[in-house]
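Bumping with the actual sequence this time:
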Amino acid sequence: MDKPLEQQVQRVLHESGEPAWRQYARLVVGDASWGKLLRYEFWTGLLGDCPGALGLALRRRCWRKLFGRCGRGVTIGRHVTLRGADRIFLGDRVVLDDNVVLDARGPRARIEIGDGALISRNTIVRNRGERLSIGAGSDIGANCIVATDSRLEIGRDVLLAAYTYITAGGNHNYADPDTPIIRQGFTSKGGVTLEDDIWIGAHTTITDGVRIGAGTIVGAHSLVNRDIEPRSIAWGVPARRQRAR
């Protein structure tokens, strides 16, 4: 069901009336606490750029308490950026490659990454809505954008090739020509669901309101703007089921 949503992040940062340090703390930590902010600043500033095996070992040990949960054997590369770290939950053996951004902004935002999942370099995982989950064993390729302002669920053992773009809610409202579009809120069609065991080809875009069934393959450079039934092979602009697997 469509529902109107607000630009929550800008409202919190620009209209809250809070001191700048509290706004910054809510952005990067998720909690306006001096103690948590200082811990975040210290460990990310000290170890964010530390190279080699030493950097990996120190981040694995010292960054654990920055997250809402951090499982065993997590690997964190260089220049990883965290926003709303308190609302990010990592399973065991998760790998965050260099330059990954995990951005959980807004009071309801939550990012969950399952056991053994890989987030490849330069990829942005951003949630400004409710829940964004990436299932166990999934592989999110390099330079992807996985973003939601409502809900986004990626199942287990899903492959996203490089430069995949998933936008799960919403579309900006623009009915009032006298009000800037950015101030009119936006509408969600319910988010995006990718079921288990899916392979998405490179440079594919998946839009809000879509469900892709388990066992499906989507060819490169496709635009997925409607549901695809399970165990399909699909491609095109817009993507259509071409045959069954």
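The tokens above came from a reply further down the thread. The longest strand covers residues 239-244.
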